[in-house]
Amino acid sequence: MNHACIYKDLCQIAGEGAVLRDEPMSRHTTFRVGGPADFFVTPDSAGLPGVTAYCREHGIPCLVIGNGSNLLCGDGGMKGVVVEIGKRMSDIRIEGTKVSAEAGALLSAIAARAAEAGLTGFEFAAGIPGSIGGAAVMNAGAYGGEIRDILTEAEVLTEDGEIGTISADDLEFSYRHSVIPEKNYIVLRVILRLREGNPKEIYARMAELKEARVSKQPLEYPSAGSTFKRPEGYFAGKLIEDAGLKGYSRGGAQVSEKHCGFVINRGQATAEDIRALMEHIQQTVREKYGVDLEPEVKFIGKFRTSKTAIAKFP
């Protein structure tokens, strides 16, 4: 099928305003890098199953993303269809201590609504720059809290196009892991169970964590948050700093001088700059300490070199 036909069909399924052609991925990742996607679709909950079914039926590569906060997209861009679960799937509802949130709802928005309702347990996630769907996929966490602590179930779209509800136990959460990507599930909505709390204390805790982030993390620069997972028995940032890489740069990419666990975009970085810097960090830490750093960042799209293992479309 030619691109004109695909564009027309996607517009009929998701709505003309929800489909973009040759859309730069740099606009949709927190690293602010990445080449164009052939098609970029932002469906609502009614249109999403139709978009994925269409891609599956016609053999079109399709990748579903959230807020793009843990992605590095290659400068060569993305072939096929990129589906962003975002503002059009961001409904949040609160009943008692139960929070029901569509996958595109930002963690910051959920935290604000929970605090307003006097519910505690979500403060740890208030400053994580992502959506609840993405957070569920990777069991996001910070400051001693993780999504698995509060998520009770998730509504998902299976690779066969069926919609089902999966309990937290069946999601098999562990450190930065769930079975969601392994089974090619797409998160549609999650149910969180919080606790009644003192609004004054909730807001105070959120302010305390915000201050900690601002003072310790390079929030003034585009990044993907923590670049590497925490190695067992170590801290990635300390290993990188001890290896003498604080402030080390490749092109426009740099190891943050504020927090060595972050690779940042100083303003003109390419995806290739970031990839090369990450590989240099891994090699240096391995040579000095015998520790393999595993990226928390996921690689998608086309890079100039075949050295990097590129994530394939599901």
Would you spell out the secondary-structure blueprint of this structure?
Layout: H1 3-14, E1 19-24, E2 36-41, H2 48-58, E3 62-65, E4 71-73, E5 78-84, E6 92-95, E7 98-102, H3 107-116, E8 119-120, H4 132-138, E9 141-142, E10 145-146, E11 151-157, E12 163-167, E13 186-193, E14 195-196, H5 199-216, H6 236-242, E15 249-250, E16 253-255, E17 263-265, H7 271-289, E18 298-300
Parallel strand pairs: 2-5, 3-5, 4-18
Antiparallel strand pairs: 1-2, 6-7, 7-13, 8-14, 9-10, 11-12, 11-13, 15-16, 16-17
Report on the architecture of this protein.
This protein is an alpha+beta fold. 27% of the residues lie in helices and 24% in strands. It is built from seven helices and 18 strands. The chain is globular. The C terminus is likely disordered.
